[in-house]
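Good morning,

Attaching, inline, the backbone tokens for the sequence recovery test we're adding to the shared suite. The designed sequence is right after.
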């Protein structure tokens, strides 16, 4: 494998930092071109001093001076502000861009990278949910491969290698999050500390709350729709609390292929970086010498209403998934700031989806406008 230069958008986050762990495991195969952070200047500086990228971006301009003073003496270029992200994402010195930003903020840099024909390892699912048509069209036109990092989509991607035939169904597995067994009437008293405690995965705050409401799985249904071009009714969610089977594909002959592994994001991240090759990953295998209990059952879409809303958004199409995503981002942020109860998150999303102006075939400007309008509507409800 030829050595790849990797740009990591969002290197200080959970996925970004684990991408650096993978790069550290294979210094002969990967090196870092660009690292970016929003405001965590200290970690960005630490990462840059260790991995010596060509450049870094800190989008919070107030932190520029600190980062520049620390890194300029080491001949690392330092840029600040949101505008720097799309410019740097398109640099031709990188072979691959890892999109590990959180939320709609990832859209512009992702489009810039794809427009420049960059191969993309995509973790930032909100971008695909909000702008799936635009992203896939751009990727296709520019022949830029989009390789999933999300564990479920990586599992499906791995199951589809060597399978040119028709797919009958995709089964996206879901841990069910911390409230799988919590009674619906107890949702009213759920606290931030409870919601931030995921049983199987350690992740950034936003995706952890999305997992607790199961909006994460809803976003992933839409993500799968765009990544694999499968009709919504063929994408099923299956609760699998052990998080060992990362997802499954059923073919037209009834055969089901699954990808299994420990719940560790380094595996899908590494596969996205090294595809089509596999590389070694220490301590990653399953131990079958002890009994392994794997359960699968249907989700409760009444208790986890966000999941039903995501299917509805996908069926309505147009700019509705974008509005749903924006409302969810605002609702989750409000919950994390103690301004909204956990049980009210789905209501804010549902009301915003009904109130937003519908656009059947949104372009980039329409999506920006929808995102802003939906955020305003959601804020008013909150
Ligand atoms: P984190 O919150 O841990 O990290 C987000 C990264 O983006 C950080 O580097 C952060 O910088 C940066 N960032 C945040 N806001 C902005 C902004 N407005 N402009 C520019 N940069 C910004 O998120 P995760 O790593 O958990 O998740 C990243 C994406 O991957 C999400 O879309 C998530 O759904 C998806 N994902 C995550 C998984 C996981 O295990 N964590 C699993 C599967 C998917 P700073 O640190 O300075 O704030
Ligand atoms: Mg996932």
């Amino acid at each position: 494998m030829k050595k790849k230069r990797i740009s990591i958008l969002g290197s200080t986050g959970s996925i970004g930092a684990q991408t650096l762990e993978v790069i550290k495991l294979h210094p002969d195969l990967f090196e870092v071109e660009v690292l970016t952070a929003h405001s965590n200047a200290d970690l960005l500086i630490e990462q840059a001093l260790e991995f010596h990228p060509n450049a870094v971006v800190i989008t919070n301009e107030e932190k520029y001076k600190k980062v520049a003073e620390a890194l300029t003496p080491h001949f690392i270029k330092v840029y600040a502000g949101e505008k720097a992200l799309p410019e740097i994402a398109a640099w031709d010195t990188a072979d691959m861009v890892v999109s590990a930003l959180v939320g709609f903020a990832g859209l512009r840099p992702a489009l810039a990278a794809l427009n420049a024909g960059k191969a993309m390892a995509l973790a930032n699912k909100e971008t695909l949910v909000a702008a799936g048509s635009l992203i896939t069209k751009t990727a296709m036109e520019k022949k830029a491969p989009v390789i999933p990092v999300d564990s479920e989509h990586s599992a499906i991607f791995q199951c589809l290698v060597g399978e040119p035939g028709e797919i009958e169904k995709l089964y996206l597995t879901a841990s069910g999050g911390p409230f799988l067994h919590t009674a619906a009437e107890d949702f009213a008293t759920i606290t931030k500390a409870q919601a931030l405690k995921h049983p199987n995965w350690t992740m950034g705050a936003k995706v952890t709350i999305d997992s607790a409401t199961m909006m994460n799985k809803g976003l992933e249904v839409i993500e799968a729709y765009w990544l694999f071009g499968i009709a919504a009714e063929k994408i099923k969610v299956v609760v699998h609390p052990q998080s060992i089977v990362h997802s499954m594909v059923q073919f037209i002959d009834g055969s089901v292929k699954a990808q299994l592994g420990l719940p560790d994001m380094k595996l899908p991240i590494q596969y996205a970086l090294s595809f089509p090759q596999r590389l070694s990953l220490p301590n990653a295998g399953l131990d079958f010498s002890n009994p392994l209990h794997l359960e699968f059952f249907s989700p409760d879409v009444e208790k986890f209403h966000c999941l039903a809303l995501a299917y509805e958004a996908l069926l309505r199409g147009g700019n509705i998934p974008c509005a749903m995503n924006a409302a969810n981002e605002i609702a989750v942020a409000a919950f994390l700031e103690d301004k909204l109860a956990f049980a009210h998150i789905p209501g804010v999303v549902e009301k915003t989806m009904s109130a937003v102006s519908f656009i059947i075939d949104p372009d980039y400007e329409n999506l920006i406008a929808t995102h802003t309008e939906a955020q305003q509507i959601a804020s008013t409800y909150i």
